[in-house]
Amino acid sequence: MTFRYTILYVPDVVRTIGFYERAFGFQRGFVHESGEYGELQTGATTLSFASLTLANSNFEGGVAPGGLHQPPAAFEVAFATDDVAAAFGRATAAGATPTSPPKLKPWGQTVAYVRDLNGSLVELCTRVS
Question: What does the domain layout of the chain look like in residue ranges?
Fold first, then answer.
């Protein structure tokens, strides 16, 4: 078994993909013509987005939408970079909400946090060696 992808359920797939392209430098992989599903090229594991409408049609009860007006959900997506400060600056310039500026952790990793336009928590970090 392999870990293939993570899907974030969002109000607007195309808008969210555009944000991730600007804020984090990823390239669009695939967007379905319906606009209900799309993927970013992020390496071996794909970061995907599906509409809240699609999520709610997939299983009974649907999902709880997130947002910047409430605390982030109990998960994060993390992107490794050699320059966390630059990544943090790029993300916030593109509209990400700064949550925690870059900090050097006791184990030697630099970590920062932002929230995307839908309120999801994004960690920007150096690799742990």
Answer: 1-64, 66-129
Q: Please report the pLDDT score of residue 65 as a whole number.
A: 84
Report the pLDDT value the prediction gives residue 97, as an integer from 0 to 100.
98
CATH architecture, domain defined by 1-64: Roll (3.10)
Question: HSE on the CB side for 124, CA within 13 Å?
Answer: 29
Given CATH 3.30.720.110, say whether it is the number of domain 66-129: yes
Q: What is the pLDDT of residues 71-115, one digit of tens each?
A: 999 999 999 999 999 999 999 999 999 999 999 999 999 999 999
Beta-bridge partner residues of 76: 121
What separation in angstroms does the CA of 3 have from each of 20, 36, 103, 123? Answer: 21, 22, 29, 19
Give, in order, the Cα–Cα distances in Å from 12 to each of 51, 61, 63, 118.
6, 20, 15, 9
